[in-house]
Structure formats: C-alpha cells, structure tokens
Amino acid sequence: MLHFEDEVSFYKHLGLKYIEPELREDSGEIEASAGGKLPKLIKLSDIMADLQIHSNFDIETSHDLGENSMEEIIKIFSFH
Predict the structure, then answer these.
(1) Nearest alpha-carbon partner for 38 in 19, 14, 10
(2) What SS3 string covers the chain?
(3) Residues whose CB falls within 8 Å of the CB of residue 74, separated by 6 or more in sequence, listed in order
(4) Deepest of 18, 43, 46, 67, by most Cβ within 10 A of its Cβ?
(5) Confidence label for 16 from pLDDT (cuts 50, 70 and 90)
(6) How does residue 33 score in pLDDT terms, banded at 50, 70 and 90?
(7) Would you say 38 and 22 are in contact if contact means Cβ atoms under 8 Å apart?
(8) Do 65 and 56 form a contact (C-beta atoms < 8 A)?
C-alpha cells in the first residue's frame, strides 16, 4: 500500500496538478488537471464588494425593501 504525506503528493504521484476540493464534482476536473487547464479559484482578496444589497427598488421580493434608491446604491458602489 502506498502512503502519501498529503493530497498534493497523491495527485503528483498520479501525474496530476492538485485539484482543490471545491472543483471536485466529476465534471471534467481530472482531465483539466491532466491538461494543466484547471480554473483558478477566487481568493478572499479578489472580492471587492458584498453581492447582496437592499434597495427601495419596487420589485416583488422575499424580504423587506431597503432604504436606498438604485441611484444611491450605484453612486455608493461606483469604483471610479
């Protein structure tokens, strides 16, 4: 039986680049690893804003409307 120090060593033994757990979905990641074409995962430092916002935009919603207009939100979060 073979013993590996960690998962990286196991993948290296198989001739593959390490496949992050988030990518392991049986959707071609082994082939992508073998071909050196694994996608890069985002890092916390890549995130520039919270993707959930609240506004007073009049649409059907599952929760209460917020306090800011869409114009105010756009102005607040514009990265100029």
Answers:
(1) 19
(2) CCCCCCHHHHHHHCCCCCCCHHHCCCCCHHHHHHCCCCCCCCCHHHCCCCCCCCCCCCCCCCCCCCCCCHHHHHHHHCCC
(3) none
(4) 18
(5) very high
(6) very high
(7) no
(8) yes
- pLDDT attached to residue 20: 97
pTM of the model: 0.58
Give yes or no for a contact between 18 and 6, defined as CB atoms under 8 angstroms apart.
Answer: no
Answer positive or negative: Cα dihedral of 32, 33, 34, 36. Answer: positive
